[in-house]
């Protein structure tokens, strides 16, 4: 796991931070290699790794299926979650300061989880999603409780236009007193998308204001699409 931690440490975090401040998202290319992507997909068929399976159609969340991991997380996922959090916490704290929100996020992921557990949020939120033809995911936010971290990541485990068509990642931005803006992204296999969980600050003429954002997945036209979502806070249920 030292390899993935070293790769994360060597990323251009100044550029990633700038993109997060400017856009509310950033793409990290080629963080995972093909072998890691294939191993994560293969884990989908191992029931002992998961605490809950959700059939999206049943809850009108979309069309597809996802599974929540249970603790302890697989080593690769644990190291990704822990290492990337420490790089994102300064971004999250800058956002809170800009919006005059009193929340201060701790510098380590372990301390964030301690806050979650004090609030009875004890369930792992890391999940793997699987879509087939006609699958999609409605626009939503991943909060899970009163304690939540405002940034999350998605790891893309299939190659677009080879393994599947359609299935773009969609972000919507709701500016106050304006129409929503749609952002459509198409990361490649092994890429990681960093994006806001629910809102971000935008600078206006009178200072910063809060812009709400949601995310989802457009319809899959053919093939199969897998992603791994890493949310940094734990859930009540």
From TrEMBL:
A Pfam family hit: Oxygenase-NA
Name of the protein this chain belongs to: Prolyl 4-hydroxylase subunit alpha
Native source species: Flavobacterium collinsii
